[in-house]
Amino acid sequence: MTVRSAPSSRFVRLFCLLLIAAVATTGCKSVGKMFKKDKDADEGQPVEAIYEKAHKAMTNGNWSSAETSFKRLVAQYPYGPYTEQSLIETAYAQYKSGKHDDAVSSIDRFIRTYPTHRNIAYLYYLRGLVNSSRDTVFLQKVWRLDVSRRDLATPMQAYNDFLIVVERYPNSRYAEDARKRMLVLRDTFARHELDASLYYLRRTANVAAADRAKYLLETYPQSRYQNDAVAVLLKAYEGLGNATLAADAKRVLQQNDPSHPALSGNDWPDYPSNLRKLNPFAGEKSAVDNRDKEEAKRKQQ
Predict the structure, then answer these.
(1) pTM for the full predicted model
(2) Cα–Cα distance between 301 and 298 in angstroms, integer?
């Protein structure tokens, strides 16, 4: 007698498939509810509670969570003092988390919407901070790439932002620090011109070297690199065979920096060795770096 077990086996397999499908459906719903709960965590909460949560995240340095909560607050409560402050805090959280483009967009949107806001000076100051940090990328920290050798568009924008704070809001609490940051940026721009003039000087393009040095002195007077610019003029005029202008440059340099290496008969500028370029791990160096190193040693003595 033959036992027919096939229908029973098919029934068991069908039952197992239905059971697995039911469990999977229940599990997916549970997971979906879990994500939905996280997504709507602030929905229906009082504006004060959402702001406090976001502010606490800021205090703990959790910039991403703070940005999310501030945005949820603005979405639920689009008007009011908490909303305005949340927009400002959103830009700051984006700045601290390295989202520089997002931060600038948030700041620009706020300035257009609230041009006479009581904290408008801070927004311009914050935009200056963001633009100052925009080029401070990972490679600059690791490879020690100098900002003055990069594109100066964003540092120049930062300078203009700080200038707005100083000129329009001179009595604000941010004006003094904005002035200090402008001086640092001016030195960055001056160094850029000095590096260019030294580049031309090394290639005996003495006219171009003198032009860049004069531009530095005229555009960024009293900068950290003004004496080096005069030294470039001295070397350039000597290279051109113009004894009169070389003597004038030497006299000015002796008056302002009598210990400058260009006056001591040393081989100045002290250009880095060409062999350095063959080392991919050496980082960038120029004659300005060697000059800064010598000056630091002299101050320590």
Answers:
(1) 0.76
(2) 5
Kindly give, in sequence order, each residue whose CB lies less than 8 Å from that of residue 287, ignoring residues fewer than 6 positions away: 198, 202, 268, 269, 270, 271, 272
Write the pLDDT tens digit of every residue in 171-230.
999 999 999 999 999 999 999 999 999 999 999 999 999 999 999 999 999 999 999 999
- Is the distance from CB of 268 to CB of 262 less than 8 angstroms? yes
In angstroms, the CA 143 to CA 124 distance is 31
Residue 103's nearest CA partner among 129, 139, 76 is 129
CA distance 79 to 82: 8
- For residue 195, which amino acid is it? D
CA distance 279 to 224: 30
φ/ψ bin of 61: left (φ > 0), alpha (ψ from -120 to 50), beta (otherwise) = left
Instruction: Report the residue count for the chain.
Output: 301
Longest alpha-carbon distance in the chain: 126
Distance CA(86)–CA(70), nearest Å, equals 5
Instruction: Write the burial class of residue 169 (CB in 10 Å: 0-12 exposed, 13-18 middle, 19+ buried).
Output: middle
Phi/psi region, residue 85 (left: phi>0; alpha: psi -120 to 50; beta: rest), is alpha
DSSP designation for 61: T
- Given the structure tokens 């040095």, which residue do they identify? 213
In angstroms, the CA 90 to CA 84 distance is: 10
